[in-house]
Structure formats: C-alpha cells, structure tokens
Design brief:
Structural class of chain A: mainly alpha
Structural class of chain C: alpha/beta
Strand content of chain C: 15-25%
CATH superfamily of the largest domain in chain C: Response regulator
Distance between the termini of chain A: 52 Å
Helix content of chain C: 40-55%
Largest sheet of chain A: 2 strands, antiparallel
Radius of gyration of chain A: 19 Å
CATH class of the largest domain in chain C: Alpha Beta
Number of domains of chain C: 2
Order of helices and strands of chain A: HHHHEEHHHHHHH
Strand order of the largest sheet of chain A: 1-2
Number of strands of chain C: 15
CATH topology of the largest domain in chain C: Rossmann fold
Oligomer: heterotrimer
Number of strands of chain A: 2
Largest sheet of chain C: 8 strands, mixed
Chains: A mainly alpha, B mainly alpha, C alpha/beta
Largest interface: B-C, 49 and 50 residues
Chain lengths: 298, 318, 401
Amino acid sequence: MTLILQALASGVVTGCVYSLIALSLVIVYKSTDVINFAGGEIVMVGGYIGMFALLFLGIPYVLIFVFSALATFALGAAFDRVVLHKVLGRAVPGQSILVAMVIATVGLSYVLKGSARLVPYTEEVRRLPPLFTGEPIFLGSVILQPQDIAIVVIAVAVMLALWCFFAFTLTGKALRATSQNPRAAALVGIPVRTMRMTVWGIASALAAIAGILLAPKLLMTPDMGVIVILAFAAAIIGGFTSLPGCIVGGIVLGVIQNLVGLYVASNAISVAPFIVIMLILALRPQGLLGGRVVAKKV
Amino acid sequence: MFGSPSLARLAPLLLLPAIGLLLPGYLPQYYLYLGNVIMMYAVLAIGLDLLLGWAGQFAFAHIAFFGIGVYGTALLQIKLKLPFILAMPGAALLAGLIGLLIAIPATRLRAVYLALATFAFAEGAQWVFNAWESMTNGADGLRIPAPSLFGHVMGNDPAAFPLVATLLALVLAATMYLTTSKLGRALCAVRESEHAAAASGVDVRGTKVIAFAISAVYAGIAGGMFTLYESFANPEVFGFAQIVLVLSMIVVGGLGSVPGVLIGTVLLGVLPTVMRTTMRDLLVWQELVYGVILILAMMFMPRGIWGFIRRKRRAVRT
Amino acid sequence: MTKFRSLRGALLGAAALLGLAAPASAAEPGVTDQEILIGLFAPMSGQLAAFGFDPLQAAKMWYEEINKKGGIHGRKIKVAIEDDKCSPTEAVAVVKKLVTVDKVFLVNGGSCTAAAVATQEFVTREKVPFVMLNAAGDGGVFPATRYMFGAFGGTQRTVGATIMEFAIKELKGKKIAFIAHDDDFGNSNWSTAQAVAKRLGVEVVAIERIPPRITDVTAPMLKIRAANPDVLISTAYPAPAVLIAQKYAEYGMTKIPLVQAVQGVPIPAVYAKNVGNPAALTNFYYGSPLNDLTDGPKQQKWIDLYKQYYPDRKPGAFMTYGLPSAMAITMALEKAGKDVTREKFVDAMETLDFDSGVIAGPTVFAKGRRDGSRASVFIKFDGTKHTLMPGVYLWNGKDGM
C-alpha cells in the first residue's frame, strides 16, 4: 500500500511540472494553431538562465523565477515577431502555412540547443540546487522532499494566476477572443499581432518556470528538452484544447508512469506515455476534459 | 496536368540506372555511399510528401514504416531465407498493411490529433524495435545480410548503387503515374477541402486511408533500399530526429511537388557532409547553423524552394 | 510537363559534377617512405562530444610524441581527423571517406560502441585495421573479428563482472540489487554480472532495467527497497545515476553500500554536487578502469603532457582513455617492421601485452581476443576524499559468455 501511495505522491509532483509545460504548448496551439516543437528547449533555456542568475549573478532564488520568466518572455515574443510573423505574412489564402510555421519551431529548437552547447559550462551534467532543502516530510509512511511541496505549491499558484489573468484582465479576455476567432477579434479592434506575441511570451515564461522547478529534480543538459514529449502526452490526456485539462493530464501522466514502473516493468516506463496517447486518441480524442471536437470556424 | 504520363516524360528516368551503372567505375566508394543514402531519402521523402503535401494529412508515423521496411527485409532474408527480390516487396507490403490498419482509426482524427497520434505510434514502434530482442536483437543492433541478386552477392556500395538507382527510377515512374491518375486528383481534392471533395463524390475517408497505405509502402521500399548498402540496423536510426529530417526535406524543398521534394532531399541530405567538411574548426556550431538555415528557409521560402522558383517563373511570365 | 524536364537537367548536372577522376592506387594504402596516414575519428560535436574530443586529442598527442622521437622506422605519423557525432550512420560515412577518399593505412577511432560496430562489416570486407579509441566496444569485439580491436578501457562486460565481484568479495554482499539500463550497455554489463553472482553463489534479489532517459526513478527504487538488499549496484549513466543516489538517500537506504559504475561518474566532484546530499555518499564507491585516481600521480603525468600540447584546454574526465589505443598502434607498427602492410600490422597487434601506464591492468590482444583491457579498480568517495580500494579486479573472459 505504501508503494502505491508513494508512487502516487511522486507522480503528482512530477505531473505538476508536466502540466506547466503542457499549458505552455496548449496556449500557443489554441491561439495560433501552431504546435511548438521548441517547447522543450525553452524549458531547458529557462532552466539554464535561472541557474545563471542564481549562481553567477547572485540573484536570490525566489527572484530567479521572475528573471528567467522575463528573459524567456522576451525570447518567445521576439521569435513570434521576427520569424513567425514573417512566415505568416507569406500565407496565400486557401493554402495552409502551418507546416512551415511548425518547421520554423523545429529550427528554433536546434538554435536553442546549439546555443546552449556553445557555452562550455553546459558540457557537464548540472543540477540546480533545490529551493528548499531540509528534512524529508512524512505524510504517513510517504516520503516527500520539501522541494516536492514547493513544486506543487508554485505550479498551482502559477496556474491560478494564469486563470485569473484570462478570466479577469482585459488583455486576458482579448487573448481568449483572439484564439476563438481571430477575424472577429481584429474587427473589434484587438491588435491581433500584439496578442500573438503576448501569447508566445506567456507560453515561454511558463516553460521557463517549469524549467526552474524541474531542474533540481531532473538534471540539466542541453538535451533535457526531450521532456516535451511527455508534456504533449499530458496535454492530450487532458484534452489538447483545455487548459484545466493540462493540469489533470499532467498529474494523470505522472502517476501512470510510476504505476507502470511499479507493476509492469521499469523499462516500459518510456513507452507508457505513447500507449496512453494512442489509447486516448482512439477512444476519446477530446481527452478527459476537452469539449467535442469541432471544425474550427473561419 | 492529369492523364497518364507519356513515354517522353518517362524516358529521362532511364538516366538513373544508366548513371547507376557508370559512376561506380569512377567514384570512390564514399561518394557512392552518399549517393545511395540520398537516393534512399528521396524515396522516403516522396512517400511522406504524398501523405502530407498531396493528401494534406499531418501524419508522422512514416519512420515506423521505414523501420518495418529495414527490419522486415533483413529478417525475411535471415529467418525465412528469402532472396532480396522477394524480401523487399514483402517488407514493403507488410509496411503498407500496417499503414492501412493504422489509417482506419487515425483518419478519424483531425490535424493536431492526427499528428500526435501518429507520432506516438512512431515512438511506440521504436520502442518495439528496441524491446523485441528475439527478432531485432534490440539495442545491440541487427546485422543485415548482404543481399544477392540472381546469384550475384552485392555486399558494398558500388555493387548496390545501380540497384538503388534503378529502384529510385521505378519509384519515380510509379509516382508520376500516381499523381496524374484519378487517385492523384482525389488526393488534391481532399487536401484543398474535404467538404468540397465529398460534395463532388470523392470518398474522402477511403482516399485518406489509401494515401496512408501507399505512403507506408514507399517507406517500406526505402527501408529495403537501406539494407542494400548498410550492414547494420540500430533502433536509434528510427527516432524523432529522422522524421524531423525527412519533414524538413520536403518542406524546404516544396510540399506537393516531386521536383521540389528531390531538391530538398539533395540539399538537406548533403548539408551534414558539407557542414562537416567546411566547419572543421567550428563543429560545435553545426546544430545552431542547421536551425538558422531552417528558420531562414521558412521565413523567405515557406512554400519551399520549388514554390519560390515557381513564383519567380510566374512573375516573369506576367 | 516542365517539372520532369528540369529533373533530367538536374540529374545530368549532378553527373557532370560528380565525374571526378578515378583514384590512383598505391602499393599499400596510406604508407609512403616518409609517412603513415592514420584516420582518426571521434564525436567532436553533439551530445557526446565530452566522450570523444579529449581522447582524440590525447591520441594525436601521442603520435606527435612518437614523431618527435623520429617516427617509426623513419616514417612520421600523419593524421586525418573526422567527427562521427557518436551516430552509427555518421561513423559509417566518415570511415568510408577515410578509407576510400583519404586512403588511410588504418582507422583509429570511435568513442561509442554502436558507431564502431556499424562500420565493422565495411572494415572487414575492405581488410582495413580498425582500432577503437575509447569505446567500450562490446558488440565490435565479441565475437572477435580479425580487423577490429577495442575495449582499451574495458568492455561493459568487464564493468559488470568486476563490479559484481567487488560487491561480493570486498563489500561482502549476499543479497545484491542491480540497476542497469535497457540498452546495449545494460545488456552487456548485466549478462556478466549475473554470471559472476551465480558462480560465487550469491543471490541477486532485485534487478531493475531502466530507460536511459528516465526522469523519475521512484518506481524502480521502491521495488529495490522492498527487496531488502545488502549492496546496491548501479551501472546507470550520469543523469539517472544522480537520481538513483538521491532516492537511495531519501528512502533511508544509506546503511548499505552503493557502488556506481564508471559511466555514471565522469567527474566525481560534479556528481557529488549534483546529488547534493552528503548522506548519499557515506557508503559510496565508484569503479574506474584507470590505474590511479584521476588526479593521482600516475594520471597527472599525462595531464601535464596534455597541458604542454593544448595549453588552452582543460582536459575532461576521459582524456587519458585515448592513450592506450594510440600506444598499441605505434607499438604494433614498430613490431611490424619497415615493410609494413595491413596484414602484418594486424598480426603484430595480436602479439601485444603491455602496461600502458594509464589503465589498471595490462592491455592484451591475442588470436581470438580483441578486447584490450579486462581490469577495474574501485574507489571509495565521501564527497571530498577519494580512497583507492585494494586490488585490481579482472574479468576472466568466460563468465557470461
């Protein structure tokens, strides 16, 4: 019984981080229809920027989140403004430019990874020190590290902040309008271009926060971006167009991975997310929380 | 644009086997190897383009079918002692069959869901190649037997080159027939608008399923070509990086056009070699340069190089 | 249709471009009266550059040292360098280039086993001697083939056998828990470890095979804890190795020793920092194929030599691993005599049995033996101090085969 509870607890913690990355991916998809293949690399860059801020600039730990989030916000917004805007500008009505935009994000992932590798510091596997160190906390017979609690608290706080932003602020409402119907949004005077940049900025900032939360648990290498696959799985489980779904999906995925490891085989852990993706898409494509899959209105 | 290709259009394809027989006498094996690799990628890329560029389906299971082609051809020769001339078509048909089975549930999905489901399938297939040790020898890799054609053992690049070139020519000919046939028209219609196509009497679902299956057969054939000049198959080769490479080839070259895809294949196929030789002291910059090239290509030629050329030609004419 | 006319044009153009002259043939490729050309390759970029860059520079350094002393039988050694990025397909391409375009006498390269193995059929067919750089090399040396030599730092089979023997003989383990990856390395090291345990009559109470990219080791560690072992052995790579050590401490298992194979601890100081929990290192050992601690005197002399050649670069953890292979090559070239041919070189390699001054045990080849080293030492590490444990452990070449 302890085994299952421990697996559940650990699963929830890692799941929260998957959720943040999944949110980053889904926000971009909902607003722009683009699948951001560079999502994992932005997580990696955010983590390294946070590490740089902490170890070399001496910024206090709590503030490195803000520092890294701002830096990656700028990065994401700039990428959208400089690259994606130009690609979109060459779209011919009636022909999809989406594939070109997706390849552009693939290019971004190589640029980010290549840049990270240029810095000699990244040659060795590194670990960001955890936010809280200290004695492990016992919930019954389940062992949790203080860092684990911090991860859950921060992730939940970020998600709440995001929800408030979308529900109550003018920019947030404008963003929702843009993602539902860009043409109508433009007609009402919402600056669609700026909204796109903002979306990319927010998504990148989310990824950076996830990176800083993840880095103490997972180790930092320029290749840690491969975790994006798990974020995709989390998003699909929850329903790729549902923001609360990301949260549910992330936690479900984290727990499933541990349960598979416990009860099937440790070497099946890596394939479990893909089987889950295929099952969900075969049986319930809208995921656990997604609405009915409808064709997008133009 | 449609209607069976005439002999005049098919004739240039004969150049391929001709070059295939001539070049091995002149070039060191290394260049023949590079040639083999690019010709194999051409088949792989055209197969993906049929699904992505012609039928408009964002499906990324392609690399799994390539793997089935490689392991299938090798294993049919090893376990069932079939000669290459039977093993390759066998593996390609197997790939097509599995493609058909995947297509039936997959074609119910739209855009991003299709992409992610097929991507998950490809990752799952790679895991199977790794885990099914009794068949594929798992992570240790499978040694591919040298194929023999009519008693002639072809163990190396110079021997394989003519056959690879001939296979490419056959695939190009088949593609020409396909794209100008009724099925080709149906693929285009489905890509442009599924509703309009259905209204015009095209069996949308059936067309999509067939596109999947044909694309998988192409990948299977590419897998068979791989076994002609490679002696070792390792599950690592069938992963995410490969599908991204093939995708980049067709997008940079030009979706939905065979010349475009060929240009993209040659350019991106030769690029690593070019980078390796020109960037000797800057090897660590390679990934960065590759990413920048992709980004610039999309910013200035999002329709691919062929789309760019076509636009310029149209501009000149008017 | 214009599109296919342009296709034909493109093909003709390509044929014209590629129509280079036929290569000149020499008596023995890569050998002139003044020079021997050696093809050197390793991952110089990409994810695993740390494994290949310094060892390759070390080999190059050794060849320069030999040249300074007058070369071999009056010939200087020249090198052609390529980058395989640790990828099997890249390795095949660069080896084909080195052999058929640069026309090297022999190939010295490979830090990754799969990359080396991918080239085996080609070098065997073309009868080109291939001496691995610092790859573990299991798939390429078992079964032994005539032209491929390797495992100068020991195969993964050696790693598995010696680590199990150390756990049993030195740490008196009776109930062993073993974590290995589910890839080719894991297959190799687990196969011999298992056989050694069986031979010594000791029970393995838990065996966990984990993916190399695993991000959460909760499940395997819980299962291991439940099996109640008295020694925990791990052959995991750097990132999972740290995760394992962390959970080992978190779950209160530090009373039993943790022994980590060399691949997970490239730089022990960085490992300790990454684990971040001093409790995890109270009972911690790691394995090494070297004859001394990485900063011990026997290794330091090579590091000092490296500094002379490459003053701008601080050598990484694996630098000295590149030396034994270059040493073997120059020794065999010397033995093969003035009229050196590839066949004579291979015959000479088969007679080698020497102490490299780098590796814990002797470097040995023979008819039917292509793995150079079968030795490991073990070091106790508490986060600051390294203590070399007594004894050099050898795999007998039979367990697990």
